[in-house]
Amino acid sequence: MSNSDQAMRPTPPEVEMTPEHDADNSPRMLFNPPIDIYETSNGLVLYADLPGVTTEGLDLQVQDNRLAIFGRVRNDQDGRTVLHEEYKVGDFLRSFILSDEVDHEHITARLNNGVLRVELPRTQRSEPRRIQVSKE
Description:
Layout: H1 3-7, E1 8-10, E2 18-21, E3 27-31, E4 35-39, E5 43-49, E6 53-63, E7 66-73, E8 90-98, E9 108-112, E10 115-121
């Protein structure tokens, strides 16, 4: 198993296309977004496709070694009636188990045109050192 496999492991898709409900009780779909993960010299970089999500509708959390990504898409119909629809509008949810190799305090994220980039830096390892032993 490579270092990147150990540093971050996707949790099984808990929900995929599960109906949620809006404030008006209309059903919403919950999608499992596609994710790409790359290893760099500094750690890992995660890319998630979240079309329609804005920074205001995006929530990233790290808790108990789990990175959770939730993106809410606004469904603005402006009073229009949908006559034909080839794709569903919904929200995005994905989570990952992080290893202790990821520095949770320095994770950064940017959203650009519906593509989320999350940088997961490695923790700094202490250098090996010699320990002086003294006499009693």
